[in-house]
Amino acid sequence: MKKNKQTIVESVAGMGAILTKEGVAFRVWAPNAKKVSVAGNFNDWSNSKDALESEGNGFWYGFVEKAKAGSEYKYCITTQENKKLMKNDPYAKAMTNSAGNSLVHDSHYDWKGDNFTLPSWNELVIYEMHVGTYNGTKKGHGTFASVIKKMDHLTNLGINAIEIMPVNEFPGDISWGYNPSYPFAVETAYGGSKGLKDLVKAAHKKGIAIILDVVYNHFGPSDNDMWRFDGWSENDMGGIYFYNDKRSATPWGNTRPDYGRQEVRQYIRDNALMWLNEYHIDGLRLDGTMFMRNIEGVNMSPANDIEEVWEFFQWLNSEIHEKCPNKIVIAEDLMNNAWITKDASEKGAGFGSQWWADFVHPVRSVIIPKDDEFRDMDKLVNAVNFPPESAFQRVIYTESHDEVANGRARVPEEIWPDHADSYYSKKRSFLGAGVTFTSPGIPMMFQGQELLEDKWFVDTEPLDWKLAKKNNGIFRMYAELIKLRRNFDGNTKGLKGNHVQVYHVDHELKMIAYQRWMDGGPGDTVIVVLNFADHHHQGYTIGLPDKGDWKLRFNSDWKGYDEEFSDQATFAMQAKKGKTDGMPYYGLMDVGPYSVLLFSQDKG
Fold it and tell me: Among the three residues 60, 87, 114, which one is the final residue of a domain in this structure?
């Protein structure tokens, strides 16, 4: 390395390999190293030619004129014991593969025309996706490009946000993605950095946001060069990036990051901001935050709490809010802990929303049992009810990658094993969707749910796209309900509102009715009626909040959705004066078995 080059080129800000017109600057954190150099195909992999200089604070820096975009490199770290370690760059934005070399990455991309803004949270309808299986084949995994090819399917479905399971570089070509080897690099097998940016730009062009899963509760555990990065460790643990005591233990090995070290905090913060800024990602979903804040991943276990994590959450979310406004940050905490979404000023963690376990588990427990008598309507009431001030601080669903794997199957398959296309599976699985898309919260579905995909999720089995034709009526049923949820026709604004009132529950007949509203009145208030039993009801009576005609907007029993459905004719309800269910009016309707009905009044 030419020392005079560093006098010509001032120290470049940033971490990792920083590409400039004159060459590449390298900065790495290795506080316990005796010496550090950078070796690569630009210096015949010499571990002495391009030495980095200590900046006096644990960081090492140097400039290599011969390095350029696409150059392969590693750091050669000399430990205090004079051992030489060849390590990939923790900040590497591209890899040859997870077991290969770091690559100098050119972050330039033509974002011209990409002026997308994330919709308001009450507008969001999320579609969770695994890139490798969404549009893959049995001969090969899916890619970002293959997802783009199926983008019209998602547009027609009506969703406006895709939540992508992790795409950071992981070992091999096939994975769920929750084993991050290099958090800053995009999985090569999916199409790398450019492929992801192409997907984001294509989605934005269709009016669809991209939310990305990120994993900060552990790193690795395999193909993980952060492990004992500069040779130092304690208690036979992982060294500078990890806790080196009992706090290191996670379900994925002793690989919990040390959230108490400012350099590790900065590493995670830089990663989060990279996705939001450089990749134009619209939001993040942090995996397993309960395993960040507690060794055992639970509430009410003070002895296992990791105290500095709350401060870290507050700092991270404040940084994102300040530097990337109009983005959403979601926690997968699953402990129903209200402090996760409380503002940092209230000593909360400051997340925008969180996956809500007290919705998915009770709803599945109501729709899956074979016998109607075992459907606990109180569980359903508790799942639907939610405080209006917190309505969109929860993400609600009946299927996610966790709920349809690890010994559990898709809801239709759970309802009748090996008969996921049965009448009962179709009917009751959609009851779950009906509750999801009409309850307060941000609704989410998992890939293939709209196709009546069966079995369970595995990362080697692609979606069966033949089901799109076979179950096109099921797809239409989901699409029409989603469009009502988003108020496409201007008569169901209340489904985007904060308010809910469950006012009719029949425990014997397994009927429930609730109203949703934003401001209330015609075009706003929506009456949701759900029949959780295998019975027709003629002239069924429920209360109504106002006089006039209540028009039918949706009937899931329509034969147009499926030839097996009973096609129970249901029409508008004429409100009649008379106190019923605590309401000043009532109406009569006919209801098919296992059905979802939506009513509202014409605007104006």
Answer: 87
